Structure formats: C-alpha cells, structure tokens
Amino acid sequence: MIGTIRATISTRRLQSTGSWVAAIGCIGIAAYAAIAYAAFPLGALVHPQMKLAFQGHSVAIYTHIFASALALLLVPLQLAAGWRRRHAAWHRRAGRVYLALGVLPGGLSGLYVAQFAFGGDVSTWGFSLLAILWLGTAALAYRSIRHGDVPAHRRWMLLNVALTFAAVTLRLYLGLFFASGVPFELFYPWVSWLCWVPNLLLMAVYLARRPVLR
Ligand code: HEM
Fold first, then answer.
1. For residue 62, how many C-alpha atoms fall within 13 Å in the half-sphere facing its CB?
2. Can you give the pTM of this predicted structure?
3. Ligand 1 atom at minimum distance from 37 CA
4. Cβ 164 under 6 angstroms from ligand 1
5. Does residue 41 lie within any of the structural domains?
6. Whose CA is nearest to atom 27 of ligand 1?
C-alpha cells in the first residue's frame, strides 16, 4: 500500500517535472524564433542555401515562423489543467487563437516551404507529412469540440501538441548532430522525420494506455 502511494507520488513528480521542462522548451524556442527572425536579416542564422530559399519566399517563411511560434507559446497555457478548469472561457478563446492564428497559417505556410526545404525529397516529404498531420489533427480536434465530444477533443489535441513540439525536438536533434561532427547536409534530411515521428508515436502509446484521461 505504502509502496503504491510512493510510486504514485514519484510518477506524479516525474510528470510534473516533465511538463515544466516541456513548457520551458516551448517558450524558449518560440522566443528564439521570434527574436532571431525579428532582429536579424532573413536567413542570417541558417545554412547559405536555406538563406537563398528563405529570401525567395520571405512572406511564407515569416508567416510560418511567427504563426508557429504563437502556437508553440500557447501550448503550456492550454495544457495547464488548473488554469483550464478555472478559466474555461479563456481556454476556449486561446484555443481559437491557437488554431486560427497559429496552426492554420503556420501549417499551410509550413506545407508550402516544405516544397523547397533544404535536403531534397527526404526533407520535403518529412516536413510535408508533418504539416498535413498538424493541420489534420487540429481540424479533428476542432470538429470534436464542436460536436461536444470533450474526450475526443483532448485526444486529438494531445496528438496535435506532440507535433507542435517538433519545433523543440528539431532544435535538440540539431544540437546533438552538430556536436557529433556529422555534416549538416547529411543529417538534416533525417531530422525532418526524427523531429516528429517519435513524438507522435510516444503520444499515441501514452493515449492507448489511458482509455480515460484525467
Ligand atoms: C508542426 C509543423 C511544422 C512544419 C511542417 C514546419 C516546416 C518547416 C520547414 C519546411 C522549414 C524550412 C526548413 C528548410 O528550408 O529546410 C521550417 C523552418 C522553420 N520553422 Fe517550422 N515547421 C513546423 C512547426 C514549427 C513551429 C511550431 C515553429 C515554432 C517556432 C517553427 C519554426 C521554424 C523556424 C524558426 C524555421 C527556420 C529555420 C530555423 O531558423 O531553424 N516551425 N519549418
């Protein structure tokens, strides 16, 4: 009995620490993207070949970065259970902003910029599929809440957030690969898949093991 209570407390502690680390990751990457793209000339911080592509499609790139950063910034707020329960009306308003001003423009422009992503077909397919699933899970989450199906809404939203989190995991993998000494041209195409496939699988397993979400 005491063992079970201790295990429950340490699982909760782990979950709470994990949530804080994830929230800091979301806010940190959103802030990095907003500052880097507002304060520096377009493409100043990326590979020269990416810079050329970005400059040729600047409206799409700026739309993608600022809309996606807004979505990323709203994730910790929307997932905070206490805030959501106390301020249900604000959760709905922030949810509309997340979908209409974040995921929709961020995903459509992401799908567009994926067509000229650095790394050729592997990157184009990786990012395109990510954009389609990001938009698709958002549409299904919205549809389920319009039908009053809260459990389905939560499940679709958690899958959607796992994909939003690709912005954080992508930068983690970039850091790891840079440190490993593997050339950027070699690893970048694979990072376009690695940044979201494990996130989505982990969330799908988490949801499958919890038929009822609390
Ligand atoms: C989840 C769906 C997303 C898709 C499909 C997507 C797709 C892309 C693509 C194709 C590029 C161009 C990369 C290249 O030319 O090789 C890019 C760049 C970028 N994306 Fe996203 N992205 C997504 C989410 C996000 C989010 C949530 C953020 C939040 C900050 C973000 C921020 C950026 C930034 C800052 C860049 C410029 C590259 C850099 O400075 O690292 N993206 N994205």
1. 11
2. 0.93
3. 35
4. yes
5. yes
6. 68
